[in-house]
Structures are given as C-alpha cells and as structure tokens.
Specification:
InterPro entries: DUF4072, HAD-like_SerB, HAD-like_sf, HAD_sf, PSP. With 279 residues, this protein is α/β, with parallel strands linked by helices. It contains 13 helices and 11 strands. Helix 5 (99-110) runs antiparallel to helix 6. The longest helix has 14 residues, at 209-222.
Length: 279
C-alpha cells in the first residue's frame, strides 16, 4: 500500500475527505499546516486523484508506505530555477544589457526545443568581454534560494543522505552554494576567464542532460544505493533523464514538458514538500 501526500498553501478539509474516498485511504494525518498524509491509499486510483488535485490546485504524491527519510541515501538537484529562484546566466546577461536575448535561448532550451550544449555555447559566447565581477554581483544581489530549500536539505542531511548539486550553470555559483549549504558534491561548467574578463567560452565538456544522468548513476553506484533510495529534482528538459533514473524524480515548478514526463511534481509548495514525502 501507499501513503498519499497532499500539499498546498491551503488544504480544505472537504478536499482531504474526498481524496481519502477517491484513493481508498483509511486515515488522514497532518504533517503540518500545508501537508497531509493519507494512509492506506491505492495507487490504482492515481488518475482520479490526479484529476481532482489538478482541479483544486493541490500537489500529490503516492509514496510506498514503508519508505522513510532514513531510506534515502542520495539527493540530486539541478541549480537554476530549482535550488535557486533565478537562471544565473540570464542575470549575468543583464549585466551585459542582453538579458532578453539570452533569456529567450534559455527558455527554448529548458522547453526542450534546442540542444542544451548548443544553447549554452551560444549564450556564453554573448558574454564575451564582461568583467568577472559581474558574477559576484549576481550571487550577492540576485541569487535567492527556492522556498523550502534549506529545510529540505537539513531534513535529508540530518537523516544521513548525501547531496549532489549538478548544474548546466557555472562552478562560480555551485561552489559558493556548496560552502553555504553543506552540499556533499557539486558539478557544473567552468567559465573561461582571462585578464578578469569572460572570454565567451566554457572550459571542458558541457554539463548536459546525459552528463547529469551519468553522474547520478555513477554516484548512486559508488554509494551502493538502490534506485528507490535516490531523490532527484529539476525543472528543465535537460533534467528529465536524471529524474527518470531516480526512484523519486520530482519536477519542481517545472516546464510543461517536464511535468508531463516526470514521475512526481511539486507546483504549489516549496522544496520542503519533497522532504514531506518521507516524514
């Protein structure tokens, strides 16, 4: 059997009762004010539950009843628009006065319309000549954590899970976030800088969808974990392969394509909603 997790800024009692009926759950328990656990739910009724939750703006997830947070050994995250609220490259572009041009390419790549490697190369090329101090300004002035990020990380870290931040963005930001949040590992692209200026190139191979998937599998194997002991979170098309390699792949405030294909979705609540699956 499963527990059905229901989450939203406000969850009406009558909606919980209806979901209990739809799912065949035998009890309703409050995790906290915005999250509820319906025990004994039948996943065979997932379609009816999904339709009801979509109509009522509720996040839902069917989680095996015997899975707890202590069972999760690895949490893998995308950075831009997942762990943090911004797309770093778009904000860097704003310092160059070309945010609209680069944002359009970013959005197209995240929707899966153009190849990620090609899109990143095109975007980084437009940054040539920008002073590297712009990176620090983006971090200090614009970068904000996604709601619930710190609570989510603390919950998983306290339970013993390792964390991997893997991004198609840049090491300048992932390394700062690693130190700030106590992340176990980070992987991202390295911007080439010469004489204090961005050259418009990336050093080494670009972190794309295949690399994200490969690194998740590699770390999962190194830790000796089963697939169902891994959580992955992302928002863009380049995150889908890694989401599908995790036992719990969560589309977080994601693009429509990703929401359609990801096993789980969070739209109404913050990243702590993922932790609520397991507590």
């Amino acid at each position: 059997m499963y527990r059905l997790i229901i989450q939203a800024p406000e969850v009406a009692t009558q909606n919980l009762k209806q979901l209990a009926r739809l799912s065949g759950a035998h009890s309703i328990e409050a995790i906290h004010q915005q999250a509820f656990r319906l025990q004994g739910a039948d996943i065979a009724n997932e379609e009816a539950v999904a339709d009801f939750c979509e109509s009522n703006q509720l996040d839902f997830a069917f989680i095996p009843e015997d899975t707890r947070v202590q069972d999760i050994g690895l949490v893998v995250m995308d950075m831009d628009s997942t762990l943090i609220t911004i797309e770093c490259i778009d904000e860097i572009a704003d310092m160059q006065g070309i945010k609209a041009d680069i944002s359009a390419i970013t959005a197209s790549a995240m929707r899966g319309e153009i190849d990620f490697k090609e899109s990143l190369s095109r975007r980084v090329a437009l940054l040539a000549g920008l002073d590297e101090s712009a990176l620090e300004r983006v971090y200090s002035e614009r970068l904000k954590l996604m709601a619930g990020a710190e609570a989510m990380l603390k919950g998983f870290h306290d339970a013993g899970a390792k964390t991997l931040l893997i991004s198609g963005g840049f090491t300048f930001f992932t390394e700062k976030l690693q130190a700030r949040l106590g992340l176990t590992r980070t992987i991202a692209n390295i911007l080439e800088i010469e004489n204090g200026k961005l050259t418009g190139k990336v050093i080494g191979n670009i972190v794309d969808a295949e690399r994200k998937k490969t690194e998740l599998i590699k770390y999962r194997t190194k830790l000796g974990l089963r697939v169902d002991q891994v959580v992955a979170m992302g928002d863009g098309a380049n995150d889908l392969p890694m989401l599908k390699e995790a036992g719990f792949g969560v589309a977080c405030h994601a693009k429509p394509l990703v929401q359609r294909e990801a096993p789980y979705c969070i739209n109404q609540v913050g990243l702590d909603g993922v932790l609520n699956y397991f507590i």
